[in-house]
Amino acid sequence: MNLLRRYILKSAGAAGALAITSGLLGTGNAYAAYNTAAFSAKTIADALKGLGAESATASHDIIVKAPDIAENGSVVPVEVTSNIANTTNIAILAEKNPNPLIASFNLSNGTQGFIATRIKMAKTANVRAVVTADGKKYTAVKEVKVTIGGCGG
Amino acid sequence: MMNRREFLQLLAVAAASGMAIDSKQVLAGNAPSNFYDVPKFGNVSLLHMTDCHAQLLPIYFREPNVNIGVGEAVGRPPHLVGEYLLKYYGIRPGTREAYAFTYLDFQAAAHTYGKVGGFAHLKTLVDNLRGSRPGSLLLDGGDTWQGSATALWTKAQDMVDASKLLGVDVMTGHWEFTYGADRVKHVVDNDFKDKIDFVAQNITTSDFGDPVFKPYVMKVINGVHVAVIGQSFPYTPISNPRYMVADWTFGIQEDNMQKTVDDARAKGAQVVVLLSHNGMDVDIKMASRVTGIDAIFGGHTHDGVPQPYQVKNAKGTTLVTNAGSNGKFLGVMDFDVRNGKIAAWHYRLLPIFSNLLPADQAMTAYIDKVRAPFADKLNEKLAVTEEVLYRRGNFNGTFDQLILDAIMKVKDAEVGFSPGFRWGTSLLSGDVITMDRLMDQTAITYPATTLNEMTGATIKSIMEDVCDNLFNSDPYYQQGGDMVRVGGIQYTVSPNNKIGNRISNMTLKGKPVDASRTYKVAGWAPVNEGVTGTPIWDVVAEYLRDIKVVKPQPLIMPKITGIGNNPGYAA
């Protein structure tokens, strides 16, 4: 592993935190309108409706990368890549979570359609990405299994 | 030399079991002198062992009579048992090979053909093969450091040194990680330094995704560049305690596998092989999707598969092998590489018959030395068994039933859970159960026994969860163990159904299990941190000392429905 990077990050930890809290790394997106209807929805159908994505088109140009089986349901790594031109938003939903909409990322003009984060999942479900490009909605899913563990091998 | 009385006994045993008897062979101890004559072929040879589970000495190991395939895997290797396997591979019943590859006539065949495996015998075979195959490599697919008392008590040092003495060149892992990340790193960086390459393309740090081990190693064999990529067990942090490898992440990592193969090819590899601990169904799926791998040397699912299964993908064919468990087999792959490509190949999965292979003296001396300090503990006689004791099989094994009986009795529980591990040696009727043999079934670094209260609904959901790890129709969602062994409760299982609908008709002492009632459930091997309890071996040892004799009793099996005539099932 990259020990030098680790060392630099450790040394820079305090300074980095300061930069974030003081808004130096912030962008205008932080002030985008919060979609209360979508984020507080309790079912996947309502969340999609809140996003205006009830009839989003399934797309192979969206790649949802997540583990087949989660190693830890509390921090499931999810990456979404959108190869659709003019992608301006990527939203992530865990279909069986109490509040399915996890996050919505606004991307400025020309930003690469890529986001990576970690999400919490209580049970096996599809992780769904909804991409907005040129005002249209596209979607793709990846099933992530959450299991009790043990008893293997 | 066998006397007349022993010979007649042997004949009687063989006849009673309906085995094909050739009197000349029996007289000769059925020991063909040329059994291990494997003519040299080609210019690149790879020897492969896997899942020896720390068995330094010869043992018995009964292959399963239940290994059900689902989805595309129905009737496909490795999901063939008994007669189905013999027919598929053209092996004659009653022979030495039939004994090695199937459970058929196990007790009688074991008496006739003897024990299998043992590092001293394996060493002799490895050295012989290497003599005729200069430059060959010995690959170890892992699960080498766990499965015996001495491995546990020496924190795997006995196996680390035995592997070096045996001459292992490249290794990957699974149960190795249950000694903790620090222990594995220590061995890899010190004991293995410049001797054994530990490879794993699918282990990265949880924070930045940095590789923890080398993804592959490039070797030059007789002028041919050969890349050996490592794939450790993808679900180690799920099947085994995550806290032991808290800073590492595993998974199948198919994209990275393809990148690794392409990188090795770009750097001049003419042969690319994968040393895998995926399990065979996962390997077969991966071989259909990742291109550029010539052969996968697989393990984890403990399948003794006589010949490679050939998988076609977008750019070619990948040979998928699996080399059994417990030191019982050695795979020998000979490639004839010409003009930078494999022109032809020969493969044999050689059973290690310890009475056909003289023990290597240096290895024997080493094993004796390792075991000596523990001799009294290892040799303690706990009980005698009057039935064959084994573990391997999808649903239950006679030794598991014994473990369940023990924990339920000692813990005063109505229900017992015992993990569906695939390791654990076998005992013949009449054998003494020593502490050594008990540890073969139980030697893990998280051995606590537990007693919990669970509702009927919780019990069912646990059974459904584990059953899905075994029978999910997509191999990438399988974890490669067998079904949790359940004591007290009888049930019906429908492997082809989906999760939530496989388990039905659960009864306890003839009464339906009540979803809302609370039951006392005994178990062992908790994967959560901080759980304490008497080690499982102490609980079972106490029970065995008490009963003294293990009487034959019917194996309690679930009722299996909806699988038709599945070649992975023999009643």
List the helices and strands and how they pair.
The complex is a heterodimer of chains A (153) and B (571).
Chain A: H1 3-21, H2 36-39, H3 44-51, E1 57-58, E2 62-65, E3 76-82, E4 87-94, E5 101-106, E6 114-119, E7 125-133, E8 136-144
Parallel strand pairs in A: 1-8
Antiparallel strand pairs in A: 2-3, 3-6, 4-5, 4-7, 7-8
Chain B: H1 4-16, H2 23-27, E1 44-49, H3 82-89, H4 96-101, H5 106-113, H6 119-132, E2 137-140, H7 149-153, H8 157-166, E3 170-171, H9 181-191, E4 197-198, E5 204-205, E6 216-221, E7 224-231, H10 236-239, E8 248-249, H11 254-266, E9 271-276, H12 280-289, E10 295-298, E11 309-313, E12 316-322, E13 329-338, E14 341-351, H13 361-371, H14 375-378, E15 381-385, H15 398-411, E16 415-418, E17 432-434, H16 435-442, E18 449-455, H17 456-471, E19 485-487, E20 489-493, E21 503-508, E22 511-512, E23 518-524, H18 536-547, E24 549-550, E25 559-560
Parallel strand pairs in B: 1-2, 2-3, 3-4, 7-9, 9-10, 10-12, 15-24, 16-23, 20-25
Antiparallel strand pairs in B: 1-13, 5-8, 6-7, 11-12, 13-14, 15-17, 16-19, 18-23, 20-21, 21-22
Helix pairs in contact in B: 1-5, 8-13, 15-18, 16-18
Offer a quick outline of the entry.
The complex is a heterodimer of chains A (153) and B (571). Chain A is α+β, with helices and mostly antiparallel strands.
Word description of this protein:
The complex is a heterodimer of chains A (153) and B (571). Chain A is an alpha+beta fold. Helix content of chain A is 20%, strand content 33%. Chain A is built from 3 helices and 8 strands; from the N terminus they run αααββββββββ. Chain A has helices at residues 3-21, 36-39, 44-51, and strands at residues 57-58, 62-65, 76-82, 87-94, 101-106, 114-119, 125-133, 136-144. Chain A has a 5-stranded mixed β-sheet. In chain A, strands 2-3-6 form a 3-stranded antiparallel β-sheet, with no helix packed on it. In chain A, β4 (87-94) and β5 form a beta hairpin. The longest helix of chain A has 19 residues, at 3-21. Chain A starts with a helix and ends in a 9-residue tail after the last strand. Mean pLDDT of chain A is 84; it is low at 14-30. By secondary structure, chain B is an alpha/beta fold. Chain B folds into 2 domains: 41-59 and 115-367, Purple Acid Phosphatase, chain A, domain 2, CATH 3.60.21.10; 379-560, 5'-nucleotidase,  domain 2 (Alpha-Beta Complex). In chain B, the strands form 6 sheets. Chain B has a 6-stranded mixed β-sheet. In chain B, α8 packs antiparallel against α13 (361-371), α15 crosses α18 and α16 (435-442) crosses α18 (536-547). Chain B starts with a helix and ends in an 11-residue tail after the last strand. Classes of the chains: A alpha+beta (153), B alpha/beta (571). The A-B interface holds A 1-2, 5-6, 65, 67-72, 77, 124, 145, 147-153 and B 143, 174-175, 205, 208, 210-212, 233, 235, 237-240, 242, 249-252, 255, 300, 419-423, 462, 465-466, 468-469, 476-477, 479-481, 484, 499, 525-527.
